[in-house]
Structures are given as structure tokens and as C-alpha cells.
Amino acid sequence: MIDTILSRASEGERLSPAEAILLYEQAPLDDLGAAANAVVERRYGNEVTYNVNAHLNPTNICVVGCGFCAFAVWTEKDERAYAYSVDDLVHRGKELADLGITELHIVGGMTKEYDLEYYEELFTELKSELPDVFLTALTAVEIDFVAKLSKVSSREALERTMAAGHDTMPGGGAEVFSPRVRKIIADRKVPAETWLQVHREAHALGMRTNATLLFGHFETPEEKVDHMRQLRELQDDTGGFQAFIPLPFLPGNTDFAYLPGPSRDEKLRTIALGRLFLDNFPHVKGHWVMHGEQITTEGLRYGLDDLSGTLTEERIAHATTVQTPLGLSEGRIKEIINAAGRVPVERETLYERYERDAAAA
What we know:
The protein is of the alpha/beta class and 361 residues long. The protein is built from 14 helices and nine strands. 43% of the residues lie in helices and 11% in strands. It has a domain at 28-51 and 140-346: Aldolase class I (TIM Barrel). The chain has helices at 2-10, 17-26, 29-44, 86-97, 116-129, 140-149, 154-164, 179-185, 192-204, 221-238, 264-277, 288-291, 293-299, 330-339, and strands at 47-50, 53-56, 103-106, 134-137, 209-215, 241-248, 283-286, 306-307, 343-346.
């Protein structure tokens, strides 16, 4: 039975949730990876995309206080707290642009000082100074938060941020959609229905977004697959997702530091299952900063076709005890891709090929 399901999935046929659970639990890992790899090679040949990007995190002060997060602090009185002004971030954005980035990834803590008006000003100023740099910003949870601060709908908040220069939305905040798991790891965070609704609204407005799954803590295989099912159903409706990003839980410095975190097997199984089950998602992206370089290289033969970029100055994952670099050079990204026997191709945020002038690079 497993061989038959894998054969069908490798040809692009849709898996049922029950079949996906069976594959996750019982399929030999190499066979699962081979099926996912067949899907990737049929779609993209031997090419793997990446972009040259950087992170801006306006503040780490956050009133939500998720137990799995090592980045946020409760109050500005915490010695680890920081809060940047619009001018600070625009100045840093210009410095980063001089390094050749094509995208700024902007997410951070949620607190009343960082409201809708703040982000409208930030995006307007960044676009004025850096018109060719894409702004991938504000998770669905953040959009919901700033909308409530300003007493507007999430759709209106999106319309206003888009008018200011907001290009695409990252996939963070999804965690695991299971209410049982959310109660354990993020009991103050908005429910899955809110996350899905904000992405639905973004897609309706023409904004492309990503989706994530945080795995390797308290979720069951059934809950993992149900999370993917809900993503797949929304994608069937809207077609607005660009990439699925499986994120392994990093327990260091969190409330759950006693957990071991996901194993190699679990990471590769989740990557492969994501590629097979999410048949309507164009890309499965490897967030190397959380997987590590070795698993990322292996993952490029287990269903990954895209990497999360150079990620200059990544802070959120690095608030845990992860040992990966704060960022990778473009050369190192290419080495990781080449090590998997793939061909690196630079892209921009909307997955168009980016032809970089050799002298400028």
C-alpha cells in the first residue's frame, strides 16, 4: 500500500490526510524523500532558488508572550529590550541595501507603540529611499494586532500597509493550527482561524504570502497533517501562497527547553511530506538558520526547491541556542546548493529570476 501511495504522490496525485499520516509514520525515509524529490525535479529540474535578503526586527518587546519564543521580552525594563525608531530602521535599511539585498524581511514584537501608523510611516520611508527593495513584512498575527490597535478591520490594515509599500507577507505566526497545541505553546496568540482569514484577505487584495508550520514539540502526526490540510484548502480557494516553510522547533532558552527538538528523521520527513501533500504550493522553502546547513543540504533531495536567503542579521531563531551563523554569504548559499548536486538560481521576492550585474555583486 505504501509503495502505491508513494508512486501516486510522486506523479503529483493528491494525497488524502489519512494517506499522508500513513506515509509520515510508516514510509521508509529514503523512499519518502525520493517521491518528494521526483516532484521537485519534474517541476524545477535541477535548479534551486534563493534570494539576497536581510532582516529588520523593529522591537523585541511583545505583549503576547508565546512559550516557544526566545526572542521576545515582556517590557522595556528588561535589559534585553530594544526598540528602534523609523529613522533607525531606514538608516539600517540603506546600509543593508548597499550590500546588494533585494528584500527586507520585517517582523518583530507586538506592543502598542508599534501600531498601524508606525508601519505605514516605516514602509513609506523605506520605499522612498529603497524603491527597488521588496518589503516582506508583518505576519498575519501582527496585521491583526495593529488593526485592533487602530480599531479597523484586518482588511483595512492590509490596504493601508500595501498603499504604503508593503509587498508580501511572511508565513510566521501559524505555528500549529491545532487548538490543543496552541493552548500549550502560544495560549495568548490569536487562533488559527484568524491567521487563515488574514491570509485570505491578503490574497484577495493581490498580495502573495507564505505559510509556515512549527513542528517538533507537542504536535501529533495527525495535527501536523491537519495543519497542512487547512493550508491546502485555502490555497485551493485563493492560489495566493508562494511557499510552504517547515520550521523545526528550537527549544533553547524557551519555556520548553527540556524538549529535545525534532530529530533529523523528523525534519526530513516533514519536508518531504510537505512537498507531497501540498501539491498546490509552488515552493517548499528551507529555512537554513533553523534546520542547520547539513539538514538543509539533505533537504534539497527531500523536497526543498528554495532557500530562505542570506538572512543578514537574523535575530529571532538566534535568541535560542542555535549555532548557525547570523547570516550566510551568497557564496555560501551557492555552496550548500551545489553540495546537493543542484544549480543555484537567484530570484527576487515574487520568484522572478534576478540577473545581478557581476561588477555590482
